[in-house]
Amino acid sequence: MVLDLNLLREEMDLRRPAPGIGTPRQEDDEVEILSGVKDGMATGGALTMFVRNRDRDSDKYKQFRDKPRPGHADQTAVAKYGECHDIRGGGQFSGRMTAALVAGGSVAKQLLAEHGIVVAAYTESIGKVVDARRHGIQDMLSIARSNDLRAASEDVIEAMREEILGAREEGDSIGGVVHCLIDGVPVGLGEPFFDTVEGELAKMMFAIPAVKGIEFGAGFRAAAMRGSEHNDPFVVVQGRLRTAKNDAGGVLGGISNGMPIEFRIAIKPTASIAKEQRTVDLKKMEETSLAIEGRHDPCIAPRAVAVVEAAAALVMADLSIRGGIID
């Protein structure tokens, strides 16, 4: 396949922090191709991509080995890995790991596009500001990519921005929801019992730092529905079997049913906040307090949009290969 490095660059840029609402830390996120590409073509060998960290300050992290940050993996990582855990920048638990997901996901997106499968997402909510409209794939690909909140409705952009800035002014952070749609998926992808479409997507989504929940289609609303309300009636549209609505989220029995795969991701508030928090000095086993210094995003949901898209693309490319759609 032809690997479009300009598209790769665009995807990496979508993940970068926006001025005013993101971290002041600025990484170029230049992707260096070390192997697997020659003259713009994938060779079929291992595709190795390398992204350097250039803007870093590791000194502030030393204290977190003894005074774990609330909401972070410091305590669990040290308990599991001991002295082997590299705590600088959060180590393997850092949001920085998502740069690699986006780089790999960009390649998966290009591979899927050759087979008519498109992945897109947007910021559905930030804190109490919720975009209640339903959006198609085009809104996600156009409007959401043209603003730094990654919102698909222009009339919620400033309210979302104010929600983030309000949290930052108080030394705090705020969470959000990312809504993702995968269009053009053929019937039959998914490998039950354990490797279902939902199972594989959920597993990948929970590898993204800060993800705390996922729902497909009607999701948790289904618990309050009756079967007659939740079931998606089958219909014929232009000679094709479809469903009249999509409360199943495009998946039945763990297998894609030909409708768009639709899911939402809950992103927790950024754990690093300027407010003083309670913790424990592990050396003394005494309660103490901790104020986190550094350059942190008051909300990572907008930046997570590109990451969710990339992670979903990687899963769908894998399932497409396993399902015989991609050779």
Helix-strand pattern: HEEEEHHEEHHEHEHEEEEEEEH
CATH superfamily of the domain at 117-322: Chorismate synthase AroC
* Widest β-sheet, arrangement of strands: 6-5-7-13-8
Q: Which percent range describes the beta-strand content?
A: 15-25%
User: What's the total helix number?
Assistant: 8
The major sheet is characterized as:
5 strands, antiparallel
Report helical residue fraction. 25-40%
Mean pLDDT: 94
Low-confidence stretches: none
Summarize the structure.
With 327 residues, the protein is α+β, with helices and mostly antiparallel strands.
Write out key terms for the chains shown.
Chorismate synthase, AroC fold; 327 residues; 8 helices; five-stranded antiparallel beta sheet; 27% helix; alpha+beta; two-stranded antiparallel sheet; 15 strands
